[in-house]
Request: fold
Amino acid sequence: MRASSSARATSLVIPLFLLIQTSCAQYEIPDVTIRALKPRGFSASIPDAPNVSLFVFQGNVNRPISNNDVGTISGEVLRAKAGRWTVEDPNLELKIGDIINYYVVVSANRAGYIKDNLSFTVRALEDRLATDGPIPTECKPTLTQVRGGSACAGQTIFEENFDNFRDNVWQIEQYIPVYTPNFPFVSYQRLVSDPTVSVSDGKLRISPKLQQKLPGFTDDSIYSGTLNLFSGCTSSAEACMKQAWGADILPPIVSGKITTKGFAFTYGTVTVRAKLPQGDWIYPEILLEPLLQKYGTLHYSSGVLKIASARGNRELRSGTTDYSNRVLFGGPVMDLQCHDTLLNSKTSTDGLWGDDYHEYSLRWAPDRITLSVDGIEWARVEPTASGLRGRFPDTCTQLPRTLLEQGSRVAPFDNHFYITLGVGAGSITEFPDGVKTANERPKPWSNPSRKALLNFWQDMDSWQTTWNQPQLLVDYVKVVAL
Reply:
């Protein structure tokens, strides 16, 4: 990664110094490898290690630097590449005899470490094709694959701490999910004022809103208006505009969704620390979704992995079965008709899942998919001898069995997937028919009904008052290679 601006480096280094003062020496920063390149160029790197999440370099050429200065060579890296954390400045022109005085800061195990009073004397200018030493011996093989890159066992291949919103990493989606199999009652929009997606205080916030409250819309607009999202639309044309007609009203909820379509991988452990939304008929979207749709685009044929979800209703039952925010669920989805076949659930004995932050993890491997919360495994899904498809009865006729036979035992989960974070509402899969919320009030729509969207919106007076904490709050996201 190229060396960054002084302002950006300062914002990262100062908070780290505060953390360094209280951290224990559980990690030792290795020797820094520095290369001066010809005709110009500079790089400083350290080998990757488990749980490293940040590498900062600050240096001055031919003049001293203290450990709270921002140097003329200033850079930070949030991800290792080819087994090393590397800060680069391709335009720095060095001469033989130049002395680089520097210090480095590393964040590991969510604590900060500093190594200062260092210096490097340029004794030769290296060719750009030279290597940094025995990197291959430091990189243990892994089953994890990274789109457009490589990975080493135990390496952090993606990390986001939401110190700010990085448009080069995340895409804010804008479209109407007309082709999404579960048909959520929302549109995803990138709003300029009162945004659905924002970052503040080191947290990602995804906040659903009422479409009728946005400028240019009224209650009547939901029945007869037009929703035009063409400017900035991130999907196909059919998903960029909708005209309300009869019972097919406009999506009454405006929500946010972000995806890492620039980053995709196969196999690894994903960890998301988040506080789940609460409010009747809303739910979080913390997912891995398929990049290439290799096994088809209909009925979840190419699969979705739910890292964690919990319905927003504080109370929700069908008979004696609890479906409320007290119940965490997750796992693979690979068929719309038999949507819940591979999903698992865990009931909290200590409050609701949305009452506090929790660390949700999904370990995706070629032989099993494992779910954990706060470091404790709570579910695993394993294929049969014939693969995951063998877990489905013959009555699940939408499953693309012939195509799945061409894949691995965990097909369709054997291709690149990307990360999705969002908030949904309603839908035809997330809330079973027959459930009742507080005061024995029934779910206002039937999943198979063509009036599902309309019936949901017409019951707004009962559910809107429960939306006291409708935001999905995310502290960090991390992906580690197997």
Q: What stands out?
A: Residues 197 and 206 are 5 Å apart (CA to CA). Confidence is low (pLDDT under 50) at residues 4-25, 129-137. The first helix runs from residue 6 to 20. The first strand starts at residue 33 and ends at 36.
